[in-house]
Amino acid sequence: MFSKQLFEIIKEVLDFVEENIYDYIDLNEIVDKTYMSKSSFYVIFKEIFDFTIKDYIRKRRLSLSANELIYKKMSILDLAMKYGYNSSEAYSRAFKKMFGKTPTEYREIGLYTDLFPKIRIEFSKGGKITVKNDMNIDIIIEELKSTKEGYYLDIDIDEFGSINEKYGFKAGDKILETVPKRIKDVLKNENIKTEPVRINGDEFGLIIKNIEKSEVEKISKKIVNSMNESVDFEGEKIKFTISIGIDEFNIGKKEETVLKNGTQAMIEAKKKGKNTYFIK
User: Start and end of every GGDEF domain (predicted)?
Assistant: First the structure.
């Protein structure tokens, strides 16, 4: 068990990395901030997060660059330079290793999945220390605030930890890319203009506006069924399912209540045997 003081030091390191993510980061400067030896810091960081500080910096940069590939018109060479690569070739190799696609292929698909979000360390008044991935829950909250009525879907990958354990984290990343793409395909076929947002490690949020309950159920069923086809990964066919929790909302309902209800409904779907949906 690591002390609160140690986690405060690690938090300062993570904050420093985020503040300097577009600049050259000297690992010796990071180590100096910790008042530890380089070897001790490296061992402790890896023990806490299960990856190295170098991996964290590299994956954060690649994840941020993926966002810009989709939402900005920068050239691949300019992105490579921005995120510390000597050439577009070096950047493309690193990108493909993480995302399973070249930057050009990823841009053509046009679906951003934040595979490696910022890590936050939080301290509660009771002394509890929580390590969280900084996902896109704020996007969902803002959309709820600006939407008069509709349905919120909490979509969770069933037994995702077992997938990582059995096939490895790269296989898990492949599933994380596949799920929102299939959701998006269903929505496109139904002519619904909205997109899933990753809100947790293996969880996505979705807001559908101005729709009847029967239509939400029909779409939810189609989303569940869209996951029936296995994913091919390095010669393995990986089967997976999802569970969906649904909550109706209107302009008078607090955003926190909608999110909580969605989560509770998703848990109920799992209790029903997974691979299904449940309306709160």
Answer: 148-280
- Are the C-beta atoms of 100 and 177 separated by less than 8 Å? yes
The first and second tokens of residue 90, run together, are: 């070096």
pLDDT recorded at residue 261: 95
- Which pTM does this prediction carry? 0.63
Q: Is 19 exposed, middle or buried (0-12, 13-18, 19+ CB in 10 A)?
A: exposed
- Reported residue count of the chain is 280
Average confidence (pLDDT) over 251-280: 94
For the chain, give every residue range classified as CATH 3.30.70.270: 135-279
The residues, ordered by sequence, that sit 6+ positions from 46 with a Cβ below 8 Å of its Cβ are 52
Whether the predicted pLDDT of 203 surpasses 60: yes
Q: How confident is the model at residue 120 (pLDDT cuts 50, 70, 90)?
A: confident
* pLDDT at residue 109, rounded to an integer: 78
Separation CA 2–CA 43 (nearest Å): 13
Q: Which CATH architecture fits 4-109?
A: Orthogonal Bundle (1.10)
135-279 maps to which CATH number? 3.30.70.270
Please tell me the predicted confidence (pLDDT) of residue 154: 96
Q: Percent helix, strand and coil across the chain, each rounded to 5?
A: 55, 20, 30
Which regions of the chain carry the CATH code 1.10.10.60?
A: 4-109
Distance CA 178, CA 170 (A): 12
